[in-house]
Amino acid sequence: MRTPENSADLVAAEDVLLFANAAITATGQREFRSGALDQQLSLDFLHTYVRVNYRRLYAASLALDINDHNAARIVLGLLETAGEASAEERRTEGRLIAARLARLPPQRVYRLFGEVRRAGINNRRTRAIMRDWLAARPDLGHDAVKYRSGVKTAARHVHLRCPQGAEPLAEVGAFLFRPGKLPRYEHPLLDAWRRAHYEQGAVAELPFTVAEGFAARHGMKREVFLKRAAPRMTRLERLRTHAVTQRPDVDLAAMPLTRLALYVLALPFEQRAARRTELTGALRTAARRAAGRHAGSWGRVHAVLDDSFSSSGSGQKRRRPLAVALACHHLLEVLAAPGAYRGLWTSGRGDALLVRPWGPTPLGMRVLDALEPGPGGAAPDRLVIVSDGWDNAPAGLAGEVLRVWRARLDPGRRTAVVHVNPVYDADGFDVRRLATGVPTAGIRDAEDLPALVEIARFAEGRTGAAELHAYLDRRVALFLGEKGAVA
User: Fold this and answer.
1) Given phi > 0 = left and psi -120 to 50 = alpha, else beta, which region is 292?
2) ∠ CA 287-104-151 to the nearest 5 degrees?
3) What are φ and ψ of residue 301, in 5° steps?
4) 425 - beta bridge partners?
5) Are 424 and 26 in contact (CB under 8 A)?
6) DSSP 303-347
7) pLDDT tens digits, residue range 194-215?
8) What CA–CA distance (Å, rounded) separates 230 from 228?
9) What is the CA radius of gyration of the chain?
10) pLDDT tens, 370-416?
11) Cys bridge to 435: 4, 78, 305, 399, which one at CB 3.0-4.6 A?
């Protein structure tokens, strides 16, 4: 039997879970019910509070499935306050920072390096981390063309030595700091950038985001430019321009599940209906890939999915909550045993492909429907609720239903209930919860659902701080690739 833990340990565990939910969902952008400034102030407080009081756990958060915005903020906070850490903590933090930077998109890292420079963080450890990351880049010449100002800022900050001569690094240095001095470059992208100023044919050789500016300068027609640039586009760029190019080589099924759901929801209803087979097949394929080894292992699964008006998100996060719900719908269908999944939308719609943000949020009524026994009279093994938690038709019914269900009808917890929330509540410093006895986790991408369900169990009150710390230690070991780490 687990020994009782002191109140300080329990408070620490609650604080870490609260921060994890915020770091997964919040991006400092406007949400449906709160502005960008509210979001930023709330995040500022949480980051400072957790870093000052639980620095080791704050650094360990880099090993969790937090979003890129908060990962960059954690890295900046650790580098900025390195003097507050012990030598052992700095060594561990350095490894976590390096591992996280290797997983971040390069544009995000270069933006972070710019913030490091503006903050005046220029100690030897920080320069070593930046220098190692730059050295690990597969093609610094490509980065110099695509992220020119970012590479230039980082090179200046770490005092990157760019020797004279024909070496690749020397060419990058000349390109960044002495443009126009060399008559030509050996690196094909650097030379394509030089030629694109006066030669229209060189535009298609450049990365898409750079080529767009040159295409506008040369007055190229959009359709012609997109067709020429298509071979050099990334998958997301192909998806974004698919409506114009209509290229048959766009593999929707290869897209990340949540990103694909956003693409589907951006299409008019007529296109969704006309392309039903293609879009549904792509969503299911992406869901099977996201489920991986968990496919078919969750037994009977019932889900309540929020497609109320608030799922429209905001101008900065348009339809994001609804996209997460649509992606979770397809992922849960794969995670459930064959034929043992039932998805219920709050609007009552039965066609997931044609959902749209509409109406109030009658979560309580849908939870009642979801708890009904399925075929054979068996209750679901899992009930998953995907919603922002604003139960308002009538208000509070969902929490009361779940309380009575757990206290009177299912005290043995035969049905595992979890609420995943894609929206950060700036006023509450957490994601909004339905009931105190229902574990709630923040979610940004549906692909993280299996891992988030594992985290959510710590919020249920049946595990203690020791188990949470052990879980974080395992995640850190796996993240750093240490031998002997167990999933």
Assistant:
1) left
2) 145
3) -125, 125
4) 430
5) yes
6) EEE--SGGGGB-SSSBTHHHHHHHHHHHHHHHHSPTT-EEEEETT
7) 999 999 889 989 999 999 999 9
8) 6
9) 25
10) 998 866 677 899 999 999 999 988 988 999 999 998 888 888 888 99
11) 399
Helices (H), 137-167: 140-146, 148-157
Nearest to 39 by CA among 229, 347, 327, 314: 314
Q: Which is nearest to 367 in space by CA: 435, 313, 309, 423?
A: 435
Distance, in Å, from the CA atom of 321 to the CA atom of 325, rounded to the nearest integer, reads 6
Per DSSP, the residues of 381-435 read SEEEEES-S--BTTBTHHHHHHHHIIIII-TT--SEEEEEE-SEETTTTEE--S-
Instruction: List all residues 6 or more positions away from 70 whose beta carbon is below 8 Å from its beta carbon.
Output: 22, 23, 24, 26, 27, 43, 47, 61
C-alpha separations of 284 from 196, 330, 424, 458 in Å = 42, 6, 28, 30
CB contact set of 124 (below 8 Å; sequence gap of 6+): none
C-alpha pair distances (Å), 454 with each of 194, 449, 463:
52, 9, 11
Cα 286 to Cα 252: distance, rounded to the nearest angstrom: 9
Contact 239, 252 (CB under 8 A): yes
Q: What is the pLDDT of residue 304?
A: 97
Please give the single-letter amino acid code of residue 155.
A
Q: Would you state the structure tokens that stand for residue 88, as one six-digit string?
A: 């052992």
Residue with the larger pLDDT of the pair 451 and 4: 451
The torsion region of residue 221 among left (phi > 0), alpha (psi -120 to 50) and beta comes to beta
Peptide bond into 394 cis (omega under 30): yes
